[in-house]
From TrEMBL, chain A:
Keywords recorded for this protein, A-Z: Amino-acid transport, ATP-binding, Nucleotide-binding, Transport
Superkingdom of origin: Bacteria
Boundaries of every ABC transporter domain copy: 2-229
GO molecular function, one term: branched-chain amino acid transmembrane transporter activity
Entry annotated with the keyword Cell division: no
Protein name: Urea transport system ATP-binding protein
TrEMBL record, chain B:
Transmembrane intervals: 12-35, 63-84, 133-163, 195-214, 226-253, 265-281
Keyword Phosphoprotein: no
Example of a GO biological process term: amino acid transport
GO molecular function, one term: transmembrane transporter activity
This protein's UniProt keywords: Amino-acid transport, Cell membrane, Membrane, Transmembrane, Transmembrane helix, Transport
Family according to the record: Belongs to the binding-protein-dependent transport system permease family. LivHM subfamily.
Organism: Hespellia stercorisuis DSM 15480
UniProt protein name: Urea transport system permease protein
Compartment(s) where it occurs, according to its Swiss-Prot or TrEMBL record: Cell membrane
GO CC annotation terms, alphabetical: plasma membrane
Organism domain of life: Bacteria
Membrane topology per record: Multi-pass membrane protein
């Protein structure tokens, strides 16, 4: 379980998130939504230790992570798929995937289920990561995060700039990862239809704090739509 | 004909020396983007290590010389790591600051060398097996020159294997391409930065061993090579080993060929002119790294 409590985050002097509380329960798919610039990505970066978080507490399964370096947080069992994918452009698809192997240190080769989830990957194994299309890069980024053997998978706008058919593939893959492997998923997203379809629980963010939360099925869809489009 | 072969061999020899001194810089400047003005001083330290090893071991110099190569690598590797941990690590992304700071380090190291060894140059005895040469059809190929060509090939292959065939190499490339994302893959990027900088410095130390064969060693010996090292890396295209090889060959061969028909100073001027004109048309060097995500930036 991932617990975030009273977290503040800032870029230099300007505070982006203040007093954020969130809980991501095990084996659930949790989505964090909101309009542009409300602090969704910053929330994820706070979890990863990529931004300044002067106060608060972020715990994974009870272990306090606030003072940990990013690479140590990853070793606790977090897989991160950043906005814009951040594939290593000059490395081959295979090399991108295999980087994650040394993190977990459990497996010697990329597990077969990853190729089962993303059948395009073996085809492109020898291509440079930077030569793939956006959708292919997104699939590679998710696969790469899974290779680290995470307990929780964190995705930042996985549908951004990706064609609808690939979005469906990605959605299916995320669901399978969650259901078959029991990996907890936390997604930041703006694409409401995708979110309503995939998530168990929802957090809605405005101006750096949570304004609504609950089980996706129980939340008022129209009100959410209003917040998202206002 | 013999003249031409001699010139070609001299060109190859000079290219190999430039390549060897630039190889470490191709790692620290090319891969890491650190402008390290003290690179020349690591070459100097390597050269002095050769001298010290020879002093301690004595004998005809062959064993001592061969031993001095790993010694010089280790010492400069460690010094590089220390410099990275104490100074460079605070200056990532601040190119001008790191230029100034490392220039300061360069002056300190030069003065330290003067204080320890005196301002008079010291001589390294060329080991016996490198003293003569191979004569084929009236052309003499000096063994020490051939040895340097061999040494640079060994270094080049070793660096290539390390970067492309090892786990450490993969982590290193990932860190250099995207530091934050490498951390998100669980890679301890600070450790990688430190070892990579050490590696570049260690290669400078090995270059120092070969520089020691070519003339007397004093505190400014590194200064003779630093400008050519930077030119080689920039000409080849920053961040590309093959580019560095070609860059060294362009500079080495053109120097020797102009020198064969004109004076050495004219040769320097013409080489600089070639580089200036070349960079006018290809400002990013010979080999430009191109990919989608880089083009978008």
């Amino acid at each position: 379980m991932l617990n975030i409590s009273q977290v503040n985050a800032c870029y230099g002097e300007s505070s982006v998130i203040s007093g954020l509380d969130m809980e991501v329960n095990d084996h659930k798919i949790v989505c964090l939504i909101g309009r542009n610039g409300v602090g969704k990505s910053t929330t994820l970066k706070s979890i990863m230790g990529l931004v300044n978080t002067p106060s608060g507490s972020i715990k994974l399964n009870g272990t306090e992570m606030m003072k940990m370096a990013t690479y140590d947080r990853v070793k606790l069992g977090i897989g991160y798929v950043p906005q814009g994918r951040d594939i290593f452009p000059q490395m081959t698809v295979q090399e991108n995937l295999e980087l994650g192997l040394h993190t977990a240190g459990k497996e010697k080769k990329v597990p077969d289920y990853i190729y089962d989830l993303f059948p395009i990957l073996p085809e492109f194994a020898k291509r440079k990561g930077g030569d793939l299309s956006g959708g292919q890069q997104q699939q590679l980024a998710i696969a790469r995060a899974l290779v680290t053997g995470p307990e929780i998978l964190i995705l930042d706008e996985p549908t951004e700039g990706i064609q609808p058919s690939i979005i469906q593939d990605i959605g299916r893959a995320i669901k399978r990862v969650n259901q078959e492997l029991g990996i907890t998923v936390l997604i930041v997203e703006q694409y409401l239809e995708f979110v309503l379809d995939i998530s168990d629980e929802l957090y809605i963010m405005e101006k750096g704090s949570i304004v609504m939360q609950g089980k996706t099925k129980e939340l008022p869809v129209e009100e959410i739509q209003k917040i998202m489009t206002e | 004909m013999t003249d031409l072969i001699t010139t070609l061999f001299n060109g190859l020899s000079l290219s190999s020396i430039y390549l060897l001194v630039a190889l470490g810089l191709a790692v620290t400047f090319g891969l890491m983007g650190v402008i390290n003005m003290a690179h020349g001083e690591f070459i100097m330290i390597g050269a002095y290590m050769t001298y010290i090893t020879q002093k301690i071991i004595g004998g005809n110099g062959s064993v001592a010389y061969l031993l001095s190569i790993p010694v010089a690598f280790l010492i400069t590797f460690l010094l590089g790591c220390i410099l990275e941990k104490t100074l460079i690590t605070r200056l990532y992304g601040r190119k001008i600051d790191s230029l100034l700071a490392t220039w300061g380090i360069s002056l300190i190291l030069q003065q330290a060398a003067r204080s320890i060894f005196g301002s008079q140059g010291v001589n390294v005895n060329a080991p016996a097996f490198l003293k003569s040469g191979l004569t084929i059809g009236g052309v003499t190929f000096a063994f020490n020159r051939i040895f340097i060509i061999g040494l640079v090939i060994v270094c080049l292959v070793a660096v290539w294997l390390l970067m492309n065939k090892t786990v450490f190499g993969a982590k290193m490339r990932a860190t250099m391409q995207n530091r934050a994302m490498a951390q998100c893959m669980g890679i301890n990027s600070k450790k990688i930065d430190c070892i990579t900088f050490g590696l570049g410095s260690g290669l400078a130390g090995v270059a120092g061993c070969s520089v020691a064969l070519l003339g007397s060693v004093d505190s400014t010996v590194g200064q003779n090579y630093i400008v050519y090292s930077f030119m080689t890396v920039v000409l080849g295209g920053v961040g590309n080993l093959l580019g560095t090889v070609i860059g060294a060959m362009i500079i080495g061969f053109s120097s020797i060929f102009v020198e064969a028909y004109q004076s050495a100073s004219i040769a320097r001027a013409i080489v600089l002119l070639i580089i200036i004109i070349f960079l006018q048309f290809k400002p990013k060097g010979l080999f430009v790294i191109r990919s989608r995500s880089l083009d978008e930036e």
